[in-house]
Every structure is written in C-alpha cells, then in structure tokens.
Amino acid sequence: MTRYTLGGDEHLFVELSESMSLSAFFTGSLITRELAARGLSGILDICPANASFQVRFDPDVLPVARLRAELEDIEAGLAAASGILQTRVIEIPVLYDDPWTNETQLRFRDRHQDPQSTDLQYAARINGYDDVPSFIEAHSAKPWFVSMVGFVAGLPFMYQMVERDKQIQVPKYLRPRTDTPKLTVGYGGCFSCIYSVRGAGGYQMFGVTPVPIYDPEQRIAHLSDFLVLFRPGDIVKFRPVDRAEYDRIVAAVDSNEYRLRIAPVEFSLPDFESDPAGYPARLLEVLDAR
C-alpha cells in the first residue's frame, strides 16, 4: 500500500513498496512521468528512486492535499494503463577483473567480509556460481533497468531483468572504502551501479568501464546534450571486453571519436512478467538492428 510522508513544508515522499521489485520501480516511473507531463504549477522537482519517489513543491502555490490527490489519481489510472515505457537500450563495455579495482581492493581488505578472496570471487561463491567467469556471464548476459540516478552526480542504480530467484545478491563492504576508481562497476544488495567519479564507496567492485557517464563540461560526444548519461528507465547491457579493447575505447574517447551503441526501444511490463527469461533478450535485438 502506498505510503505518503511529508518532509518539512516542501517535500512529499511517496513509498510504493518496502522491497525493490521491477513492478515497484515501473509504477514509480509511470507516476512520476505522468506527474511531470501534467505540468502542475508549484512543482519544483520530481526525484524518482528505486521503489519510491519524492516531490518538492511550493505549498503557497500547490497545497499538499491537492498534490496527494493528483498522485492518487495518477496511480489509480495505472491499472488501466498499457504498462508500456518508451525508453533506450545502452550498451556499456566493461573490463571485468581489472587491475585498478583489484589494486584498490587490496588496500581495503580489512573492511571486507572475506579478506582472502577478491570481490568477484566472494560474490560468485555466495551466489552459488562455480567460478568467476560464470558469475561474470550472469552479471553481463541479461540487461539492467536504471531505477534511479543520484547519490553522486550521474551515478546509476540498476536492477537486473531476470527472474526473481536468479537475482544476484551481494552485501556491501563491512566498512566503506575511502577510495573507489572512477567508472567502477559496483554491486550492493540487489543493485549494480557505475561510480561516475572517484571517491568513497562500499559496493563490491567487479570491473571498470572505459565509457564516461558524467561530464560537467559536456565535451564528450555522447554527453554533449546533457552532462549525465543515464535516465531512470534506461535499459543497460554490459558487454565484457578484454584489455586491448578497453584501451582502444579509452583512446577513442580521448579523441572524442567514440560512439555509444544506443537505440530507442519500447518496454512492456506485461510482456516481461509473462516471459522474464526470454523477453529481455528480444529487447536487446534493437542494438543489432542499427
């Protein structure tokens, strides 16, 4: 049951579920998109999250009772909605088991649950995989939904589109690190992420991508329109690459010649729920069609 909580005079927090699920994310995405589309006077900001969202509003223009009534009306209408989301598929190359995150791990093993293993070895073992390559295959084979962007500028939280019993689960470090390489592909709970900048962190570290996802100066070609790459609702496909390809992509990015593989796509929640094993693979076909 949806729960509404006031945050001071200007914020309304809306919790859709106590646990993360694709349907909870999808409901929040549809509500916030429709709220933005209605263009109500007095709304200052809409912040979607994993299974919730928050609205900042001007109470002198938009009384909270009216805002809540508007949100309840939108949610009630979702039952008759098609469950369709117009979004994008973005391919992100990843060098798994890379030298930079491995070096960082060694500096912080005293903060880890299993100091004798690497983050990948630990994640593979506790999720029942025989070895690291099979775990990397599981992490990269199926696409991910960007459920929210935040914590630091441009950092996406992603939820994998798999059957619920196949969801990877990994705890965060026992104590946070004071360093994480820029563009690290991390994992905590049921979420994968990409650290947009270098800094502290507690997620397990699986690899790095050579593709920038945040550029405040907007000099990089795929970030020239907006400084942040990801939007909630984007679908991400990780593609494992070796060191040689990683280096080639870095050089292409440096010369501003790199072009992301990205394609528009229509996502259907009913189709996913009826075929969670096969539907994600069909979604990715749009990348090969371009």
Structure keywords:
Gyrase A, domain 2, 7-stranded mixed β-barrel, 2 domains, 4-stranded antiparallel beta sheet, 30% helix, globular, 290 residues, hydrolase, Cyclophilin
Q: Outline of this structure?
A:
With 290 residues, the protein is an alpha+beta fold. Helix content is 30%, strand content 26%. One of its GO terms (molecular function) is ATP binding.
Task: Walk me through this protein's architecture.
The protein has 290 residues and is α+β, with helices and mostly antiparallel strands. It has 2 domains: 3-81, Gyrase A, domain 2, CATH 3.30.1360; 86-287, Cyclophilin-like (Cyclophilin, Beta Barrel). Helix content is 30%, strand content 26%. It has 9 helices and 12 strands. The protein has a 7-stranded mixed β-barrel with strand order 5-10-8-9-7-6-11, surrounded by 4 helices. It has a 4-stranded antiparallel β-sheet with strand order 1-2-4-3, covered by helices on one side. A hairpin with a 2-residue loop joins strand 8 (184-188) and strand 9. Helix 1 crosses helix 2 and helix 4 (119-126) packs across helix 5 (132-141). The relative contact order is 0.15. The mean pLDDT is 93.
What secondary-structure arrangement, pairings included, does this model have?
Layout: E1 3-7, E2 11-15, H1 22-38, E3 43-48, E4 52-57, H2 64-78, E5 84-96, H3 99-107, H4 119-126, H5 132-141, E6 144-149, E7 156-160, E8 184-188, E9 191-194, E10 204-208, E11 235-240, H6 243-254, E12 261-268, H7 269-274, H8 279-283, H9 285-288
Parallel strand pairs: 5-11
Antiparallel strand pairs: 1-2, 2-4, 3-4, 5-10, 5-12, 6-7, 6-11, 7-9, 8-9, 8-10
Helix pairs in contact: 1-2, 4-5
